[in-house]
Amino acid sequence: MPVVRGKEIEVLYSASAIARRNLELAKDIASRDYEDLLVISVLKGSFIFAADLIRAMHDVGLSPEVEFIFISSYGAGTTSGEVKVLRDIDNDVAGRDVLLIDDILESGKTLKFARELMLSRGAKSCSLAVLLDKSVRRKVDLEADYVGFDCPDYFVVGYGMDVAHAFRELPFVGIVKGDA
Ligand code: IMP
Ligand code: MG
């Protein structure tokens, strides 16, 4: 088991499994007839997934525009509460096919808020791509269009995701197992 910051990390999804899945997701995305696709990475957690997914999209012939939105879900610790835009996108989404990319779909509050925001601004469509779906935690009626993996109900880190600002740099997704 890898040891990082003195903690053992159990690998849930390896770097190679994620890379294979990203290519499959990119093919699914390419099979839909999006015109004028604008990909929006939801920061911070999705930055590595988005970086890999847009390159997989290139590999299957897509040329999306890329934007970033910084959204924070307030609430204590690891539970999602109120949702707020901390840094908005620079572009107009009116009339465009938007694809929001996030790390995890959990309660659904973050992406429901983000999707409603894009549609209220006149986006022609707003699809959702998430690396992980923790469906047992859902609190609102929302499903993603593209899901990397159905995730068991553990708090996971790595591949962009953190606990208390640590472990974003891991090339895999894992569970922190306590002191090594
Ligand atoms: P929700 O769908 O509004 O509950 O928000 C999901 C967001 O909470 C994700 O984008 C992550 O930033 C964060 N999150 C949820 N579960 C985890 C986890 O297991 N590890 C790290 N971040 C998580
Ligand atoms: Mg997030």
TrEMBL record:
Swiss-Prot/TrEMBL keywords: Cytoplasm, Glycosyltransferase, Magnesium, Metal-binding, Nucleotide-binding, Purine salvage, Transferase
Catalytic activity, EC: 2.4.2.8
Cofactor(s) the record lists: Mg(2+)
UniProt GO molecular function: hypoxanthine phosphoribosyltransferase activity; magnesium ion binding; nucleotide binding
Keyword Cytoplasm belongs to the record: yes
NCBIfam families: HGPRTase
Stated name of the protein: Hypoxanthine phosphoribosyltransferase
Organism ancestry: Bacteria, Pseudomonadati, Pseudomonadota, Alphaproteobacteria, Hyphomicrobiales
The gene coding this protein: hpt
